């Protein structure tokens, strides 16, 4: 089983542009930032989880395509959320 790795950045902050470039330079890693700005390296999901997630995304996309109430993204989409 793979575990999440969290790297603390207490002495300096990674800007949005620097974080984006870090993600671009390391496309094979699933990188996230916490609300505190710490870097989180997520392990890949297993086959069972990936299959389950794909099914949920497909159902949500089909429902939304019928009702036209918004936009559906997969779990690899990057967002900057307000704090």
From TrEMBL:
InterPro entries cross-referenced by the UniProt entry: Nuclease_put_TT1808 (IPR012296), Restrct_endonuc-II-like (IPR011335), Uma2 (IPR008538)
Q: Which Pfam families match?
A: Uma2
What is a GO molecular function of this protein?
Answer: endonuclease activity
Q: Which domain of life is it from?
A: Bacteria
**Has the keyword Ligase been applied to this entry?**
no
Show where the Putative restriction endonuclease domain sits.
Answer: 17-82
Keywords for this entry?
Endonuclease, Hydrolase, Nuclease
Protein name, UniProt field: Uma2 family endonuclease
Source organism: Microcystis aeruginosa BLCC-F158
**In the record, what lineage is assigned to the organism producing the protein?**
Bacteria, Bacillati, Cyanobacteriota, Cyanophyceae, Oscillatoriophycideae
């Amino acid at each position: 089983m793979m575990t999440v790795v969290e790297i603390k950045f207490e002495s300096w902050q990674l800007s949005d542009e620097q974080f984006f470039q870090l993600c671009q330079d390391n496309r094979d890693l699933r990188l996230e930032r916490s609300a505190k700005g710490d870097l989180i390296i997520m392990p890949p999901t297993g086959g069972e989880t990936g299959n389950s997630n794909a099914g949920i995304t497909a159902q949500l996309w089909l429902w939304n395509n019928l009702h036209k109430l918004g936009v559906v993204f997969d779990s690899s989409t990057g967002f900057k959320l307000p704090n």
